[in-house]
Amino acid sequence: MTTANYLRLRQICLVAADRARAEADISAVLGSEVVYRDPNVGKYGLENALFPVGQKLIEVVVPTRDGTAAGRFLERFGTRGGYMVIMDCSDVKRRRAHVEALGIPIVNTLDYDGFYAIQMHPRVGRAAILEFNNTRGGDTPQGPYHPAGPGWPEAARLPAKGQLLAVEVESPNPADLAAHWSGIIELPMSGGDQPSIKFDDSEIRFLRCPEGSMERLIGLEIAVPDPEATTQKARARGLVASDGAIWLYGVKIGLRTLRVASGS
Predict the structure, then answer these.
(1) Which residues contact 174 (CB under 8 A, 6 or more apart)?
(2) What CATH number has the domain bearing residue 232?
(3) 245 and 120 in one domain?
(4) H helical segments located in 1-149
(5) Please, are residues 218 and 81 in contact by the beta-carbon 8 Å criterion?
(6) In terms of domains, do 25 and 93 share one?
């Protein structure tokens, strides 16, 4: 079924210093293999790899030279903080006008044949770089998705080895940040002590951190077939902290049990 108007939480981007190690670590935790390495990111002084998590993706980028935005991000945030929250949608150009009307600068525009994306300034957008993108023919999650490469439609149809359920962002004033992102994304925020913005199959949660702390993307909740086995794999790779939390290139990974729909 084609969805004429859509907005999906589609991809999270993390930053690492060592690509080979990052790929091995992420593969161990997610239980999935690299679906694509995009040669186009080389012009930004980066290498990358994308891993499917159901019909969403986790991307890791690695600086290959000095002076990159991702390198400055590592210098500023160190081992705590994710880099980008990426959404695909049917109406990027309309959303661009909306974002600019809010006074949020667009720091990068990607305009390829059949693909268009905008990335917002993180200091004004706050907490992470936000991106809206559109791939021609990508009306459904099983369709083409340019960042995941030409093999994506086939990979998207494979049985899911995981599912990205939630993104967690922290701020000393989570309600204020949630309201700000709600205005950008044009989805309502829930109230209460832990505000959230809900998509059809996932959500962004806004958590409180101490006064004076930096706002940042701090966690992901992922469903996997066997959380205990995943934790053991993460521990074997040195990714489990003394309190038992899994930390994966800046973000704390919360595990849930993947529920497979009957008949699938």
Answers:
(1) 194, 195, 206, 207, 208
(2) 3.10.180.10
(3) no
(4) 19-30, 69-77, 92-101, 122-125
(5) yes
(6) yes
For residues 146 and 51, membership in a common domain is answered with yes
Domain with 241, as residue range(s), is 163-257
* 186 and 106 fall within a common domain: no
Does residue 262 form part of some domain?
Answer: no
Residue type, 168: E
- Looking at the chain, the whole-number percentage of residues with pLDDT higher than 90 is 83
**pLDDT one-digit tens code per residue, 224-261:** 999 999 999 999 999 999 999 999 999 999 999 998 65
Which of 93, 122, 156 is at the close of a domain?
156
Token readout for 249 is: 């290139």
Please list the helix, strand and coil fractions of the chain in percent, rounded to the nearest 5, in that order.
25, 35, 40
Q: Tell me the mean pLDDT in the region 138-146.
A: 93
| CB 117, CB 132: distance < 8 Å | yes
21 in helix, strand or coil? helix
Contact of 81 with 14, CB cutoff 8 Å:
no
Give the DSSP letter string of 31-63: -----B--GGGGGGTEEEEEEEETTEEEEEEEE
Beta-ladder partners of 129: 84
Q: Is residue 263 part of a domain?
A: no
Domain boundary, last residue among 141, 156, 171: 156
What does the pLDDT read at residue 193? Answer: 80
Report which DSSP code applies to 139.
S
pLDDT score recorded for residue 3:
53
